[in-house]
Amino acid sequence: MGRLATISTCQLDQWALDFDGNRDRILEAIRQAKAAGSKLILTPELCIPGYGLLDHFQELDTFTHSWEVLAEIISSPDAQDIIIDLGLPIRHNDVPHNGRVLALNGKILAIRPKIDLCNDGNYREMRYFTPWTRYRVDSYTLPHEIQELTGQTEVPIGDIIFQTLDATFASELCEELWTPDSPHIQYSLNGAEIILNSSGSHHELRKLDTRINLITNASKSGGVYMYSNQKGCDGDRLYYDGCSLIAINGQMVAQGSQFSLRDVEVITSTVDLDDIWSARQSRSRGMQAMKAHDFTRVKIDFAMTVKTRSNPKLRIAEAIKPRYHKPEEEIALGPACWLWDYLRRSTAAGYFVPLSGGIDSCATATIVFSMCRLVIAAIKEGDEQVIKDATRLCSGDDVSKMSAQDFCGRVFNTAFMGMKEQSSKETRGRAEQLANAIGAQHIDCNIDEVFNAVKNLVSNTLDFTPRFKVHGGEPGENIALQNFQSRSRMILSYAFAQLLPTSKGRGGLLVLGSANVDEALRGYLTKYDCSSADINPIGGISKTDLISFIAWAEHAFELPILQEFIDATPTAELEPITDDYVQSDEVDMGMTYKELSVYGYLRKVRKFGLYSMWEKLCVDWRDQYTPGEVYTKVRRFMWFYAINRHKMTTITPAYYAEQYAPDDNRFDLRPFLYPSFTFAHRKIENELKTMEEGEAGNAGEK
Ligand SMILES: Nc1ncnc2c1ncn2[C@@H]1O[C@H](COP(=O)(O)OP(=O)(O)OC[C@H]2O[C@@H]([n+]3cccc(C(=O)O)c3)[C@H](O)[C@@H]2O)[C@@H](O)[C@H]1O
Ligand SMILES: Nc1ncnc2c1ncn2[C@@H]1O[C@H](COP(=O)(O)OP(=O)(O)OP(=O)(O)O)[C@@H](O)[C@H]1O
Ligand SMILES: NC(=O)CC[C@H](N)C(=O)O
After folding, report:
1. Which of 66, 356, 488, 542 is catalytic?
2. For residue 665, what pLDDT is reported?
């Protein structure tokens, strides 16, 4: 008894097309795994070029450079005597595949191409890769340079199981785990002891639970399941959230961090492969195993395990409980890590936020502060890369003794841009107090001059003076006047971001947006106002989640001022305040933020049209609203959604965090010029009529 295998997985903060950096991070992970006594290391999906290359996967250079980097890795003296599982695109018979290359001691063992590609939501793998056919195995002719390096010409490529002298394992790539008929089922029935899952899986609020359930379920009938994921922002809207882990027989024994600024994190465990035996001793499994597909086995002349007796001190990993963050923590940490990667990789000098005193820009600013807290914590832990990047951002100054507030003051500027009449002293005061509390450099100014200049120019040119609604103006005039203000703020934001003394990096300060996912869905924003920014950390987060986040951050970040943001009624402050009128978001929108979350979920996640949405809500909301009232609500939502959909084509790139994000650029592809939904309206109205007639009939019978 006792076949002890010490094995490693890792999470790497790769960057699309950063071949040098990606290679260095992979080699560092291999070094750390070897230092921990590992005989096998798993790396994330497509980790050599990076996962998020999108159409760069169609370039031949990407294939060539990936092999060149692979050659550098496998020939490195640091990468010997350990089985290495690497991710790169593979061209076989001129068909592109998303592949894994397994190597040992400078030789290629075999190639495992991905069978089930991911093509939902943000994923477009079918655009660049062809799925490998299940159970197929071919011979692959290695690129000439690799032939020269390894002395090999051909290696097996396909759906295979690997067999060392003392253990068996097989690869399963990311999405393959998420399918109903995952390859690991057949591998496991064939006796494969370890499944190696390499992933490029992004953060989404409350998603980790699904991932961990899939992994623990995949190993519950006996076996080891290793999971390796990318981490960080690799050049796009997604944050890959690590959580690489090792499980055995349905129980987790190791889990990597979900959010951290560490570029390389290696997770190593020693597992006893003989522990798998007992978990596989059911006759029903045995009978299924007799009928399992017979896989090609790639034999490896290498021992992965040691006997317990030869190393009695080796500690076998024990079961641990999965670690989940609360959604509020996920909001604080995920976008903060993403912002840090974006800042250091863009080489900009810092961030700028137009701070209104409302909850959304407050959330964006608090996330920047969260980033500063993470940076300072990483500096204290001695993270060399973070120290280097932070020192650059602070113009070479010593960062070792800085507080989060000190660092924030070096990389973050905010500005309140008020109107003398419309901006209340409360919003102005809140903005300033928040900036002071987090240490940001703050500007307080009024934009009346710009507003009046635009208004006068337009009035003189058109010989027509627009008036606010409260002064007797028509809706169109009222909105035009609001938009003069909001669009001027956008121009001023860019002017400040470019010219503030802190703007010493390439591109100055990056302007952050703070339109939330619900406003985007309803179109409650002015096109090209401050909703237009460089990037937006909260554009994929709902208003309700943002409020909970601010409530959490008040205590977690010791910022008492945040309570005042929660207590305030959300208002755009774009219309003059009078004795009996203060503009309020939910009144303006004609729906609540809570309702918007429901519509967003039904439209995108449940894939409901107007009619199905009405049917569903007639049931879900039956205690509050009649079917007729539900119809009015759904119809109103779809109307605003449709007339404002064009705003999604230019919406600022946002951290993707919510399943119902309406971002038209990558995630939610739909038309932006809609007809009115007369067909669905008529159908519902007919049904309402039938319902009314039925009720009248029933009443008559009584
Ligand atoms: N089908 C179509 N395809 C392409 N473009 C189309 C279009 N229809 C209109 N447009 C364009 O869009 C323009 C109308 O959109 P836009 O200029 O944005 O203006 P609009 O949506 O009419 O008004 C902005 C709304 O957002 C509210 N707001 C503004 C600022 C902040 C907040 C907040 O608290 O969050 C709320 C404000 O109170 C108002 O209700 C048209 O003038 C036209 O240029
Ligand atoms: N007085 C202001 N000073 C600075 N920026 C402002 C001001 N008013 C609005 N903004 C910017 O414009 C964005 C959208 O405006 P608005 O406040 O109307 O909408 P919001 O999405 O409800 O945001 P918030 O909750 O931050 O107020 C804000 O998030 C903020 O970045
Ligand atoms: N890269 C992939 O195959 C992604 C798979 C899966 N849908 C996830 O989000 O993790």
Report:
1. 356
2. 81
**How large is the C-alpha radius of gyration of the chain?**
29
pLDDT of residue 700: 67
Which residues make Cβ contacts (< 8 Å) with residue 678, sequence separation at least 6?
none
The complex's ipTM works out to 0.91
In this structure, are strands 231-232 and 240-241 parallel, antiparallel, or unpaired?
Answer: antiparallel
Q: Give the ligand whose atoms come closest to the C-alpha of residue 354.
A: 2
Block mean pLDDT (10 aa), the chain, length 702: 92 98 98 98 98 96 98 98 98 98 98 97 95 98 97 98 98 98 98 98 95 96 97 96 98 97 98 96 96 97 91 90 96 98 96 97 98 98 98 95 97 96 92 98 97 97 95 94 96 95 73 95 95 96 94 98 92 77 82 94 94 98 97 97 96 92 87 96 98 82 62
Q: What's the CA gap between 227 and 40, in Å, rounded?
A: 13
Query: What does the pLDDT read at residue 144?
Result: 96
**Position 101, amino acid:** V
In angstroms, the first-to-last Cα distance of the chain is 79
Give, as one character, the DSSP assignment of residue 568. Answer: S
Token readout for 567 is 């207590």
Question: Residue 5: which H helix or E strand, with range?
Answer: strand 3-12
- Around Cβ 252, how many Cβ atoms within 10 Å? 22
Give the separation between CA 88 and CA 73, rounded to whole angstroms. Answer: 13
DSSP secondary structure string, 102-168?
EEETTEEEEEEE-SS---STT--HHHH--PPPTT-EEEEEPPHHHHHHHS--EEEEESEEEE-SS-E
Q: Furthest-apart CA pair in the chain: how many Å?
A: 95
Which atom belonging to ligand 2 lies closest to the Cα atom of 574?
18
Pair of tokens at residue 229: 């994921």
For 583-587, which contacts have Cβ atoms below 8 Å and span 24 or more sequence positions? 585/524
Residues 6+ apart with CB under 8 A from 95: 130
- Cα angle value 661/665/667 (rounded, 5°): 40
Determine which residue's CA is closest to atom 1 belonging to ligand 3.
Answer: 200
Catalytic pick among 174, 337, 362, 618: 174
Alpha-carbon gap, residue 5 to 193, rounded angstroms: 11
- Report the distance separating Cα 640 and Cα 636, nearest Å: 6
User: What was the pLDDT predicted at 506?
Assistant: 55
Decide: helix, strand or coil at residue 664.
coil
Written as one string, the DSSP assignment of 235-296 is SSS--EE---EEEETTEEEEE--SS-S-SEEEEEEEEETTHHHHHT--HHHHHHHHTS---E
The DSSP string of 567-593 is HSPP----S--BTTB---HHHHHTS-H
**What is the residue-wise DSSP string for 413-425?**
EEEEEE-TTTS-H
Residues 6+ apart with CB under 8 A from 75: 106, 149
Task: Please give the angle made by the CA atoms of 42, 45 and 50, to the nearest 5 degrees.
Answer: 120
CA trace torsion 554, 556, 558, 562 (10° rounding): -10
**pTM across the whole model:** 0.95
Which numbered ligand comes closest to the C-alpha of 177? Answer: 3
Whether the CB of 87 sits within 6 Å of ligand 2: no
Q: What is the crossing angle of helices 627-644 and 678-701, to 10°?
A: 170
Token reading at 642:
């449709």
User: Is any atom of ligand 2 closer than 6 Å to the C-beta of 570?
Assistant: yes
| Spatial distance between the Cα atoms of 549 and 385, rounded to a whole number of angstroms | 29
Structure tokens at 634: 């759904």
Asked about 114 being catalytic, the answer comes back as yes
